[in-house]
Amino acid sequence: MTTGNQLRSFARKPHNVILIVLAVTLSFLTLFPLISLAKDTLIVHPSEIMTVKGSSVGDATLFHWKKVFFDGETSQNMFYKPFWNTVNVSLWACAISLLLGGSVAWLVTRSDLRWKPFISTVFIFPYIMPSWTLAMAWLNFFRNRLIGGAPGLFTALTGIETANWFAYGFFPIVIVLGLHYAPFAYILIGGILRNMDANLEEAAVILKAGRLKILSRITLPIIMPAVLSTFLLVFSSCMSAFAVPAFLGTPVRFQVLTTQLYRTLNGLNPGYGYIMALVMIVIGTGILLVNQWIVGKRKSFTTITGKSSNISLVKLKAFKNPVSVLLILFVGVIAILPLVTFAVESFIMAPGDYSIKNMTTQFWIGPGSEDVGGGEPGILLNKYIYLGLWNSVKLSVIVAFVAGTVGALAGYAVVKARGTRLASLVNNLAFFPYLMPSMAFGAIYLSMFAKRNLFIPSLYGSFALLVLVGAVKYLPFASRAGMNAMLQLSNEIEEAAQIIGIPWWKRMVRIIFPIQKSSFLSGYLLPFISCMRELALFVLLIVPANRVLTTMLFQYNEKGWNQYANAINLLIVLIVLIFNTVINKVTGASIDKGIGG
Amino acid sequence: MPEIILRNVTKRFGKFVAVDRLDLAIADGDFVTLLGPSGCGKTTTLRMIAGLETPTEGEILIDGRIVFSSETGVDVSPDKRDVGFLFQNYALWPHMTVEQNISFGLENLKWDKPRIRARVDKLLATLKIEPFGKRYPSELSGGQQQRVAIARTLATGPKVLFMDEPLSNLDAKLRTEMRAELKRLHVETDSTFVYVTHDQLEAMTLSTKTCLMKEGLLQQYAPPLEVYHSPANVFVADFVGSPTMNFIEGYGKNVNLDEIKLSVGGLDLIFTPVSGSITLRDDQEIILGIRPEYIPIGESGQGKARVYSTLPSGMETVVKIQVGALQLTSVVFGAIDFEIDGEVRFGFSGDDCIIFDKETGMNLALGRLTIL
Fold first, then answer.
1. C-beta separation of A271 from A64 below 8 A
2. Which residues does residue B7 pair with via DSSP β-bridges, in sequence order?
3. What is the rounded average pLDDT of the residues B221-229?
4. Which of A206, A211, A220, A294 to mutate to test binding with chain B, by most B CBs within 10 Å of its CB?
5. For B80, which residue in chain A has the nearest alpha carbon?
6. Could you tell me if B111 lies within 8 Å of chain A, comparing CB atoms?
7. Average pLDDT, stretch A368-396?
8. Three-class DSSP labels, A323-378
9. Residue A371: which residues within 8 A CB-CB, separation 6 or more?
10. Residues 6+ apart with CB under 8 A from B344
11. At B357, which helix (H) or strand (E)?
12. So what's the pLDDT on residue A301?
């Protein structure tokens, strides 16, 4: 075959074309920004002319690197302390979420726990809800007089003033992040347990091994590689969390990398910020490599399921009722109680006073009055809220559509060309954005598209930029879902259509998509929900004209207009939960399918 | 000595009845196969005896001890039933070496190290897997994994051994080999084997008794040759034997003394029962069952037929013949290549042709056939 013919036969296969297009586009959208970011750490930015003495804009300089890493006390405060805080917070939060999520996963898949459907549905709520939901609930409950305002519900009810360490900083951040990512660990570990052949445990039962021994010698070692990779994913998610430390850490000046990033990029020293973003990306990439190494090493540990329907459940006996009731109470506290506090807080006139006569509907449907919250009307009458809501929904729908479709195509092409170098390149490129901390990713796009770049005009402040950054950031979810869907589908299904001459697009639309509808749709659902509740990714890119609900919430909160913030938060949570439930019921798509549980 | 008794055992999954009022007695030293199509409840039955599944109703005794009773609420856990279990997919622990897999059960019995070592070595030798002791299961072939699984199950010396389709993941050649080994093991270990399979050939060749099930109901529980020659009903007759039995629907009535005239598919036959006399209503609807080996074909014979197809396999030849509207399968010894559409003569031989009642499917009588 001549080279020309080889090329032609290569190009005749649609998945090759998709791979080529994706490889080029994704390189441009993920690798190129990385280079641009690296460059940004080495030049003088307009706001830095005063700090970098005797320089002009665009000069090459090592000033930022010196300041961040090698300037004694300054580096300590600016980088090292936040860095260790980040590592500490992430490790502990990870431990909590793995322990909690893993235990619940084990109870739900392996024991005769009561009310499983309810528990497994509600336990996921904290992950569907925006991450700061629990942080705000924590503040609603435990805030003290430190930040000026009124104390929270806990103090109001008991009269006990909460200690600073308990109300703000490290402790609550760890707890809240741990709880937020516990469902994520639950979905991943639950998926592993569900796929693990129960016969492996039964074989040990027959050989007279006790429950504990089975857990320690059989179950844990077998799922350990997968648990480790769950650990790394949760770790990198915790590391890139912005909203929670911003809400809970700022009052006591507890800084982590993301909050530092926000301060420096929004302030006068973007050069420092770009370096920190780079550090986070390096850590994220390191985690990916370690993860791939672990996954590559495990020797067919996930055995082909024998008869998992025949699974025999561990009898909890005397613990059955107490454990079940405790879990119900627990999911109530972490998933439902926060919503109640938002509702309560949003109806309180003077903060800290929870008596009936202090209740008001002012912040929902009241007309604006000068003495309250800068004269803003209640959120249901505020046209800016509706604008934000419209922007949020519009953005999420478009992002979900783009990410979901591209992800489905990527999944299709990668699975079709499995084993080729091109396929694994695209696979990695599509997963790469997952490791970039949202804030850093936003920063990169800010730096890259703030000015005209190649043939792309300056996108700063445009809606298109938000769509672009959202679609790329959430592509990993969608491409995972697409791959899962395609891996379950045998090649013959498509070949049978191919042989009778059905064109490619028709095979996709009429055969492949309908068969794996719920899996593919999960690839749309996850970006949609993530986008609806995203803050860190957009917070640097938003301008007043295209504000979304989450950034408005953040602004209200920064201004200390607690009631508005609570009301908006309740609105966001309800919208997300309703969308999730409706889509789940109508199409069968679900978050856990997207994550690949 | 271990004897297993099931009384009125029922298992329901929601509304679906997997096993329906099963009574079964497995004597000490038996090699019993639970046979049936997929979904007939055979695996569920095995798992219930082992204690991996809890019956909805009934009573199970092992070695005279009640291990399960829905009435008294007794439910002895699997580890206290002193049984061995061989899983279909072997369920070898992927993170342990072959030796660790085998010794795990012995550690649980608190054996001391030298004794475990000796036992493991002996098993490795018995099952011819000595070179693989330090390997991981994923580094072994299917047949080797199978042997490791057997070694692990035998290690603790259980008196009762349960096997859930243990050979179904092996290729045809290995399967035949392992069958022979299992039969030897049964004698060597002097234990009771209960074996689940959907392969009737496996059941025929291995077991001392076969328990045939269909949709949760026991169909026949008898030695395999009895099941073969005197199946309890049409389902059993159809399930056992390869190539399958010929079934011809028709009518029968008593003529003479002890003789029955059958008209099936345009043929008029006389059936002489050998299993005792039977009485049919006039023109009772029946199904005539004839095993392929009881239809000799060749130069002589009372009937005339056309060869429809012929499948010589060396040792024997399966020939389909067309008799009027009927198609019959015949097996003849040796490789004889009949010409398709050629003419042959055929007859019926032997005393084991069967009349089934069409309505109930039950076996009415065994006997001899002559063409009128």
1. yes
2. B59
3. 94
4. A206
5. A208
6. no
7. 77
8. HHHHHHHHHHHHHHHHHHHHHHHHCECCCCCCCHHHECCHHHHCCCCCCCHHHCCC
9. none
10. B297, B298, B301, B304, B305, B306, B307, B319, B321, B338
11. strand B353-357
12. 45
Which three-class secondary structure state does DSSP give residue A204?
helix
What distance separates the 2 farthest-apart alpha carbons in chain B? 78
CB contact under 8 A, A206 and B78: yes
Query: Are residues B104 and A300, on separate chains, in Cβ contact within 8 Å?
Result: no
DSSP structure class, residue B166: T
User: How many CB pairs below 8 Å do chains A and B form together?
Assistant: 81
The pairing of beta strand B343-346 with beta strand B297-298 = antiparallel
Does residue B141 belong to the interface with chain A, where contact is any CB pair within 8 Å? no
The two three-digit tokens of residue A114, written as one number? 């009561």
Q: Is B29 left (phi over 0), alpha (psi -120 to 50) or beta?
A: left
Q: Output phi, psi for A28, to 5 deg.
A: -65, -40
As a whole number of angstroms, the distance between CA A125 and CA A517 comes to 24
d(CA A189, CA A219): 12
Q: What sign does the dihedral A461-A463-A466-A469 (CA atoms) show?
A: negative
| The pLDDT value given to residue A372 | 60
Rg (CA), chain A: 25
Determine, for residues A306 and B89 on separate chains, whether the beta-carbon distance falls below 8 Å: yes
What number is the average pLDDT over the span A294-306? Answer: 49
Determine whether the interchain pair B93/A199 forms a contact, defined as Cβ–Cβ distance below 8 Å. Answer: no
- What radius of gyration do chain B's Cα atoms show? 25
Q: What is the pLDDT of residue A375?
A: 66
Chain A residue numbers with beta carbons less than 8 Å from the beta carbon of B88 are 199, 306-307
Q: Could you tell me which of A528, A534, A496 has the C-alpha nearest to residue A512?
A: A496
Chain B residue numbers with beta carbons less than 8 Å from the beta carbon of A217 are: 104
| B142 part of contact set with chain A, CB < 8 Å | no
Provide the pLDDT for residue A593. 61
Q: Delineate the domains of chain B, giving CATH numbers in brackets.
A: 4-232 (3.40.50.300), 246-371 (2.40.50.140)
Q: How many CB atoms lie under 10 A from the CB of residue A265? A: 23
SS3 state of residue B100? helix
What average pLDDT is seen over chain B? 90
Q: Which domains does chain A have, with CATH numbers?
A: 13-44+377-597 (1.10.3720.10), 80-306+322-360 (1.10.3720.10)
Quote the ipTM score: 0.78
CA distance A446 to A591: 29
Would the pLDDT of A130 be above 90?
no
Global model pTM greater than 0.80: no
- Residue-level pLDDT at B118: 94
* Alpha-carbon span A173 to A443, nearest angstrom: 23
CB contacts of B108 in chain A (<8 Å) are 207-210, 213
**DSSP letter string over B3-71?**
-EEEEEEEEEETTEEEEEEEEEEE-TT-EEEEE-STTSSHHHHHHHHHTSS--SEEEEEETTEEEEETT
How long, in residues, is chain B?
372
Task: Taking residues B179-188, report their average pLDDT.
Answer: 90
DSSP for A228-288 reads HHHHHHHHHHHHT--HHHHHHHGGGT---HHHHHHHHHHTT-HHHHHHHHHHHHHHHHHHH
Q: In what order do the strands lie in the sheet with B16-26?
A: B16-26, B4-13, B57-62, B65-69, B74-75
